[in-house]
Design brief:
Layout (H helix, E strand, L loop, with lengths): L2 H6 L6 H7 L17 H14 L13 H14 L1 H12 L5 H7 L18 E2 L2 E2 H5 L8
Antiparallel strand pairs: 1-2
Helix pairs in contact: 3-4
Length: 141
């Protein structure tokens, strides 16, 4: 592993967490075609994307092609991989009650941003004032 990956992999997926979830990752064993990209690196890319709120296309190249990371995220959402990961982490840490889940899933409010419409921007007729006065008709028309 190169030094660049060490910088990008700043510990979003700890070794302890990876030991829990690695056995749950889908396998291509026995299937033809290209081997899957490194699951841990892909999970690091997914975590980076959600931590920063960046578009998928802005994913650093150290995580591989953004399309690969997005496709894996999409697949994990559909095939139940995320649910299995969540269930294993919950059971490993003895998290059963919904109140414990709130603590597990807490969000640092310093990184949460409100949409401009939630921030009290003035509106005219339901549209943002800037789009109503710019002469464009708003919403990219």
């Amino acid at each position: 592993m190169g030094d660049d990956q060490l910088v990008v992999r700043a510990g979003a997926i700890s070794d302890e967490l990876w030991e829990l979830v690695a056995p749950l990752m889908p396998s291509r064993e026995g299937l033809r075609g290209r081997p899957l990209a490194d699951h841990r690196l892909v999970l690091e890319g997914i975590a980076w994307r959600f931590r920063t709120g960046s578009p998928w296309r802005d994913l650093p190249v150290e995580f591989g092609p953004w399309q690969t990371v997005w496709k894996r995220h999409h697949r994990f959402s559909i095939d139940g991989t995320y649910q299995r990961m969540f269930d294993v982490v919950r059971s490993s840490y003895g998290i059963e009650a919904d109140n414990d889940l709130v603590e597990l899933l807490s969000v640092d409010s310093s990184v949460v941003r409100a949409h401009q419409h939630a921030a009290g921007a003035p509106t005219v007729g339901g549209r943002a004032l800037t789009s109503a006065t710019s002469g464009t008709g708003g919403c990219g028309e």
